[in-house]
């Protein structure tokens, strides 16, 4: 039984082939027709409820099987009609009687209309959509691959997710290619139905007149019922399958099921609903118009639009309580509430990280209207923790009347550190170095990386991808900017409380190590400073056990935290190498030996520690050459890395970060031995 279930589809296909050869009794033909209608209806409903085409990836093969099944039923019904004087089962007879209703001409007209609608409108339209979708999907593959690489570089996804998305893109291309061919089957099936209908009517009439010696009116009555009934029981499932085909190939830009998308997108436009109601009210002035239906329709639409508009206005306050009034305050007058001095402290609290945005951006954040911002932040927090070993605090989201409707700002410790502006109803197209063509749009700069871009309309998205642009949706633009801002300022978010939490977490695996190091060898404050210095230079602190063991094994009493941090970096060389290495190669800029000697000789000491007291002309030359090297790294889509000796690494970084904060300075002892170092240039005196 289990083996039969595992091969059910193969058995079904064999049965379909037998239908073409073995004649069926009218009863079995009725069963097959009912199965055909049920399967077709099921396929249509599935196509309406899926969120993306790949959820129904078997559809092209299923289309071939159902078409073959339908042709098998047609052949069997034709045999019964021609051999049994039009008797081909109860389903065909009842369907013919229902449509004809005693009038052969009207019945045939209705049947022909159904056939032509399926053949000319639905089938031909689905065929064209599938052809265009297949071509555009194939042409857009390079742009989609670039978008995945951009998300991977931004840290929004990991290697596994990037691999899955690349595989999905390949499956989509294969799927649309298969759909392009499968729609030809639907078109052929529609043509075949017309031919079979003609054969049934003409062949049945000849048999009735010649062999059965029936009257012409009787022949037309008998065979017209059978022909129309057979055509309908064939065309109704074919119509359902054709509609499902059109549904599948037009689901490319949908985010939910058809029911969900239609409901959400219609109800998100209350003004359009109100205006439609107003137009119906104007039609009441036209003489002869039915007053009652128009009035009911107009009032219903206006009331529905007004309620939706009020609900959207109320939903705009969903994210946060007003800044100046805590949540508990509505129970008391403002003066009475703040009479208690303890309540004033709530006004001076500073959030670790917060994001404010204009009114137009609320739909991207509001979960009640389908906003995905919070989910994306949760995903980023997980990925950042896996990569850097640090859990980003909760991001407070709030709308602000002080911003333009399309603006947003990111604040760290209450101060603005980043700002951007996006168009919710557009896509951002990142301009390639050599675009394949020009596309209309609003010129701008991508907020996270400063890449020249254009805001384009949704209908231009496919064409932009064909021209080589990397197209990003508005929410991804905003979350990418937020994530990059958090990466740059992660060291500011690591406070004493978070440090204690990290130590408590590692204490579950190595309690003795934690107790020995903190506070035995180093204080909590100094340990926090070490982690902050690592995060500031983009070094992951995930391997906390190695960090603690390095402190325990190599720290000398009274040693400053700068020296301890350099030892930890040496112990984390595999982590550092993995972060900056690509394809087994590490591209770097090196310093000339004379320049290094000059820098070592310029080391000076103060109460705050050692620093580089570089001569002005040497400093100017160093910064000018480094600026040119940074441009080369940008062309390679890679972060700039300067490789120098361990003696001056930390001091050189402190010198350069105020001019080039994105430049990383590494020492030779921080590079793993299995990596090939490629020096793209050498900075000289």
Protein traits:
685 residues, alpha/beta, Glutaredoxin, 4-stranded mixed sheet, 4-stranded antiparallel sheet, 28 helices, 14 strands, 61% helix, 10% strand, transmembrane helix, FHIPEP_3
The fraction of residues assigned to DSSP E strands is 5-15%
Low-confidence stretches: 316-330
Distance between the termini: 83 Å
Radius of gyration (Å):
36 Å
Summarize the structure.
By secondary structure, the protein is of the alpha/beta class. InterPro entries: FHIPEP_1 (IPR042194), FHIPEP_3 (IPR042193), FHIPEP_4 (IPR042196), FlhA (IPR006301), T3SS_FHIPEP (IPR001712).
Describe this structure in words.
This protein is of the alpha/beta class. It has 5 domains: 2-262; 268-315; 350-490, FHIPEP family, domain 1 (Glutaredoxin), CATH 3.40.30.60; 494-571, Orthogonal Bundle (Helicase, Ruva Protein, domain 3), CATH 1.10.8; 580-685, Rossmann fold. Helix content is 61%, strand content 10%. The chain contains 28 helices and 14 strands. A 4-stranded mixed beta sheet has the order 2-1-3-4, with helices on one face. A 4-stranded antiparallel beta sheet has the order 6-7-5-8. Helix 2 runs parallel beside helix 4 (59-83), helix 3 packs parallel to helix 9 (216-249) and helix 11 (270-283) packs antiparallel against helix 12. The chain is elongated. Residues 316-330 have low confidence and may be disordered.
